[in-house]
Amino acid sequence: xxxxxxxxxxxxxxxxxxxxxxxxxxxxxxxxxxxxxxxxxxxxxxxxxxxxxxxxxxxxxxxxxxxxxxxxxxxxxxxxxxxxxxxxxxxxxxxxxxxxxxxxxxxxxxxxxxxxxxxxxxxxxxxxxxxxxxxxxxxxxxxxxxxxxxxxxxxxxxxxxxxxxxxxxxxxxxxxxxxx
Length: 180
Prior knowledge:
By secondary structure, the protein is of the alpha+beta class. It has a single domain, classed as Roll (2,3-Dihydroxybiphenyl 1,2-Dioxygenase, domain 1), CATH 3.10.180. 27% of the residues lie in helices and 34% in strands. The protein contains 6 helices and 10 strands. The relative contact order is 0.21. The mean pLDDT is 87.
């Protein structure tokens, strides 16, 4: 077993370090996002076969003031989400329901579903977004989070690191969970 296979988190961090400026240090991966065609079926099978759960379900946007942007343009979408905490890592399952201009739907149409992103919490999302823009990394989609005061941005890093990096900022201390 190689050192990287013993520590897959290190391999992810090494891949990201190759493209991000030295001033950006992502050190807190808290979530893996998985896009699925049928949320109820996926979560039911994970529970019955692997004993994974309980899941916390939500439809987003969940508040009238919620905002979503695809490549900088405000769009209307609706997604179903299920969250489960597995040790220190949260897994988010996403089923797109409405809206054409969103990467969840485009990813599902292109791949049939699968691992979509790794989410990192950052203390100041604006600083990180400014730094990654300097090396040509664009925001694919962004919006307000489930919890009030939360913001997230999905970076278009597929070509650089082989997956999408998502950033999330929440005011105050965070336990890493999207919902309680």
